[in-house]
Design goal:
about 450 residues, five-stranded antiparallel beta sheet, 9 helices, about 20% helix
Length: about 450
């Protein structure tokens, strides 16, 4: 950290400035001893897409709005190639689009081999047990521990190489050690969870095996609009998550892990066509209709979103969203999807107490989600409301192993274990499980495209 008076004084000044990172380094460079190294107009290739980049998505935080450039994508490569003498281009973001980075790399340094391992994979570390700086939310921690539990259970029925079922020995399961998000061909394909299992040996000592399990999300989207009029046929997708980035049209909570105090967002996707009206109905795990919202689907919509405000905490479990079109006085569901609000097993980074578990997992006070509601309305199509309500009341009082069993049960409905591999050690009776370093999806597998060596004499990296 520099102690130069210019740097320290500017840091003090910029601590009172709005968005200081936008100009801090330029100001230091142009006013310091290296001012002659400044390259004018080096930031000349910026990916402006005004209709997206100027959306005011932080109006609830600030009292002003500005524009920002968008991430480059493959369709923008023509602009990049048409420019010359560019030292910097903004912005590239692998979690949004890895393909354009590969294309740019190939253009600059010649193409990679088509069969190169990991070329279309991207791994992003989200959690590490040795990281004492980053804070992990209680929601994420609850999910992570459930992922470990589901991963271990899958080992007991893991198929052997001959297709036969081979039961693996059980051991003492440790806490989560690492979590990595996995994308393939710019599609989020799951969460990689690293954890330890401890086994006793014949000699009386203990053997620790470190595993990585790949958990993939299960979609519960249903589009029911194939044989309806031209307007409703425009619907092509429904997704639910949190932290919706309007400018890049992605959920920044990539795995869409949600808890009782989160604010879910419904993203709906369309093709252009006839304008029409729909209703959006949110239904909680015991069939309580938490809200019905009318919406006009305009002619040129491609992607839009709906974000209701509910009283917290939301009731944990399986939620349903229905998109309803009214035709000749009758309501028709043209699309629906389900999402998980996970029951909480952690509070402030520690295992939740029985008292805190009840507070988090019982739903909103009085069962009312909206401030203007006086009565609880149930989904008229549901026929098991009473049994679900009774079960939800029982679940809300659970703690310890019973709480974890409930969490694993609902998580298992939305996530599945694709595969597992070993980082170190071997599971007794389960030697068929492959090594992670030779497993293409693993965070331990080689990623040649991301390796950076020394700069060559010609100034290139490769």
């Amino acid at each position: 950290m520099s102690k130069d008076p210019l740097v320290t004084s500017l840091k003090h000044t910029y601590s009172y400035s709005l968005l200081p990172a936008e100009s801090f380094f330029h100001t230091v460079l142009r006013n310091g001893p290296y001012c002659e190294t400044f390259v004018r107009t080096n930031l000349r290739l910026t990916n402006w897409k005004r209709k997206l980049g100027c959306r005011c998505q932080y109006k609830h935080i600030v009292d002003w709005c500005g524009c920002s450039p968008n991430d480059f994508k493959p369709e923008d490569m023509a602009r990049i190639k048409s420019q010359s003498t560019n030292y910097f281009a903004r912005k590239f973001e692998a979690i949004v689009n890895q393909e354009v980075i590969n294309q740019l790399d190939s253009w600059l340094y010649d193409p990679y081999p088509a069969d190169m391992q990991g070329l279309n994979y991207y791994w992003e570390s989200i959690y590490h047990h040795e990281d004492s700086v980053s804070k992990t939310s209680d929601v994420f921690r609850t999910f992570y521990q459930s992922f470990v539990s589901i991963g271990v259970k899958s080992l007991k029925t893991s198929p052997a190489q001959g297709g036969e079922s081979q039961a693996c020995r059980t051991g003492t399961v440790g806490d989560i050690k690492e979590v990595t998000f996995l994308s393939q061909h710019d599609q989020f394909t799951g969460v990689l969870a690293v954890y330890d299992i401890e086994y006793p040996t014949n000699s009386g000592s203990k053997q620790v095996v470190t595993l990585e399990s790949w958990l993939a999300p299960l979609s519960h989207e249903e589009l029911l609009n194939l044989n309806v009029s031209n307007g409703p046929q425009r619907l092509v997708g429904l997704e639910v998550g949190t932290i919706w980035d309007q400018k890049e049209r992605v959920f920044r909570n990539l795995a869409r892990l949600m808890g009782p105090w989160d604010d879910p967002v419904l993203v709906h996707r369309w093709v252009h066509g006839k304008e029409f009206d729909v209703k959006i109905m949110w239904v909680d795990p015991i069939n309580v209709v938490t809200g019905i919202y009318e919406m006009k689907v305009v002619t040129n919509w491609v992607v839009s979103f709906h974000k209701p405000t509910f009283k917290k905490p939301m009731r944990p479990g399986k939620w349903t969203i229905k998109m309803i079109f009214t035709h000749k006085g009758e309501d028709m569901v043209i699309g629906q999807t389900k999402f998980l609000v996970i029951p909480m097993s952690y509070s402030k980074g520690q295992p939740v107490s029985a008292q805190d578990a009840v507070a988090a997992n019982s739903g909103p006070p009085g069962g009312i989600y909206n401030t203007n509601d006086f009565l609880i309305e149930f989904d008229r199509e549901a026929n098991n409301t009473e049994a679900l309500a009774k079960k939800a009341a029982e679940n809300s009082r659970k703690a310890g192993p019973e709480l974890h069993a409930w969490i694993d049960n609902v998580t298992d409905y939305f996530w599945t274990v694709e595969s597992s591999c070993t980082i170190s050690g071997k599971i007794p009776g389960c030697e068929h499980i492959s090594l992670c370093e030779s497993t293409i999806w693993s965070s331990r597998s080689p990623d040649p495209k991301s390796e950076i060596g020394k700069v060559k004499p010609n100034g290139r990296l490769r």
